[in-house]
From TrEMBL:
Species annotation: Esox lucius
Regions that span the bilayer: 362-385
Pfam families: Amnionless
Compartments (UniProt record): Cell membrane
UniProt keyword terms in alphabetical order: Cell membrane, Membrane, Protein transport, Signal, Transmembrane, Transmembrane helix, Transport
Name of this protein: Protein amnionless
Example of a GO biological process term: receptor-mediated endocytosis
GO cellular component: apical plasma membrane; endocytic vesicle
Signal peptide: 1-26
Topology within the bilayer: Single-pass type I membrane protein
PANTHER family: AMNIONLESS, PROTEIN AMNIONLESS
Length: 472
């Protein structure tokens, strides 16, 4: 608390800047699957039915289906409860048989979308902006953060509908906003109303519900994703490939061991996650030699080693995961370049130190010059403390080393190419107070689903039948 107050009072201008910038480091997460009639992956025969085919929807499944164009059918079996969303130009014509080019006609079934889960990291794409989403400039993340974080904007592609199971380990699934058919919901009451609507019930199901308008991330150094409570749920969907490198690494928030490198960055006031991500993008990933590397960067809680040796409570750090899809050598080369950049520019970027681990077994600790002086001060304090001259007040994240344990554990550390220290004064994230009301309501491109959507609840349904014949 004392530390926090000290830093804030020193830098009122920067603090103000942060507060006004609104949501920091929120990403856009786009749901990949759809339940569109015209998407061949939704049909059990692998192709969109044509005019001689008999089309079946599972009777007992609630479903929302988007019909973009006119499709001809022979016969259609509808579910008990569902909706077709028909934009202008979408619809069905009934064919009396013999459509040329359609073959003899088969019975084809719409695939069951019931099991697709929100917490499946394979079903999302992430990008820094809507424009990036559209242009296919996606960001790599660890598994936990492939799924929408509490500060993210969730996008269901325009011109699609979907069905998603939002069951979570918590009662609600908090996100910043949800966009469905170009309509962006960022106010909680409005979105709850949508979830209660017929369309909402056909699209979202499960024992927890998404909730929009979660606290905005006001901290330019990034915010915690919040998905670790669902870690097991997320990882149950992931199949890990066997790794062949010498020393596979396990990034925080990931489900699998990886071959590559992990850079851990300690930040101070002034660090901006988004601009640092852009910096690495432009400085390194745009180079031909590094183009194949996946870089995932986020703020995570990690248990840290004080002075590189003594474990202590977890602190927030910036984790950069580098994967090259191969042995990890290329990732390690990039990690070294990033550390060199930190040595040169760290103090301008709000970085107090960095280290990396690579799956070759290499481990490098680097520090920004200037920090070392402070650490020397701490060491003196530690010695004075041991002699009983100084009593250290409550600083729960630092365990004071005994000199013998220091000496001993130093020998246990592998290959150092550089010795450095992290700065315990600056290792706590600066928690900016939330400023309510900054997240204004954006002008929305509103689409009234009711007017474009045609929905049916089949009143003639008999419990003993499994489907209803929709012959015209
Ligand atoms: C069809 O669905 C798949 C997966 O559900 C998706 O990846 C693909 O983009 C969709 N195709 C179109 C044309 O939207
Ligand atoms: C289908 O939706 C209705 C509401 O429209 C709901 O009462 C019912 O539980 C849902 N059934 C399933 C299997 O999700």
């Amino acid at each position: 608390m004392g530390k926090l107050f000290h830093m804030m009072s020193r830098t009122p201008v920067i603090f103000l800047l942060f507060s006004l910038s609104g949501a920091a480091d929120a990403l856009y997460k786009q749901w990949i699957p759809d339940t569109n009639y015209g998407n061949k992956t939704n049909w059990d025969k692998g192709s969109v039915p044509c005019g001689n085919d008999i089309v079946k929807f599972l009777a007992q499944r609630n479903i929302s289906v988007y019909v973009k164009t006119v499709h001809s059918i022979q016969e259609m079996w509808l579910p008990v409860n569902g909706e077709f969303i028909l934009p202008s130009g979408g619809g069905f014509t009934v064919n009396s048989g013999g459509e040329p080019g359609c073959g003899a006609g088969v019975t084809t079934q719409f695939k069951d979308a019931e099991s697709l889960q929100w917490f499946d990291p394979e079903l999302w794409k992430a990008a820094a902006s809507l424009d990036d989403l559209e242009k296919g400039r996606f960001l790599f993340s660890v598994h936990e953060e492939s799924v929408p974080c509490q500060n993210d904007d969730v996008v269901f592609r325009d011109g699609t509908t979907f069905r998603v199971d939002t069951t979570s380990n918590k009662l609600i699934v908090p996100v910043q906003s949800v966009t469905v058919l170009s309509k962006k919901f960022s106010r909680s009451s409005e979105f709850s109303q949508y979830l209660g609507s017929h369309s909402g019930q056909m699209q979202f199901h499960g024992s927890s519900a998404p909730s929009v308008g979660a606290a905005t991330c006001e901290d330019a150094s990034g915010c915690n994703c919040g998905n670790s409570v669902n870690h097991d749920r997320i990882c149950s969907k992931v199949k890990c490939a066997p790794m062949s490198c010498k020393k596979p690494l396990y990034p925080t928030g990931h489900c699998c061991d990886v071959c590559g490198a992990i850079v851990t960055v300690q930040y101070t006031l002034g660090f901006n996650l988004e601009s640092y991500r852009n910096r690495l993008q432009h400085l390194f990933l745009s180079l031909a030699s590094y183009r194949s590397i996946h870089l995932g960067m986020s703020k995570v809680l990690k248990s840290q080693l004080f002075l590189g040796v003594i474990p202590r409570a977890s602190v927030a750090v910036i984790q950069i995961v580098l994967l090259d899809g191969e042995s990890g050598e290329l990732a390690e080369a990039l990690a070294r370049d990033i550390l060199n950049d930190v040595q040169d520019q760290g103090s301008n970027l709000g970085i107090s130190g960095a280290e990396f681990q690579a799956s070759s077994g290499a481990m490098v600790v680097g520090a920004v010059i200037g920090v070392i002086v402070l650490v020397a001060g701490i060491l003196v304090l530690a010695v004075l403390y041991r002699r009983g001259i100084v009593k250290i007040p409550t600083m729960p994240t630092i365990s004071v080393p005994s000199l013998s344990s220091l000496r001993q554990s130093k020998q246990e550390i592998g290959e150092f190419t550089d010795h450095g220290f992290e700065n315990p004064i600056f290792d706590q994230p600066v928690v900016m107070p939330e400023v309510p009301g900054i997240y204004g309501s954006e002008a929305m491109n509103s689409i009234a689903l009711k007017s474009s959507g045609v929905y049916f609840t089949n009143p003639a349904f008999d419990e003993n039948e499994t489907s209803v014949d929709f012959t015209v």
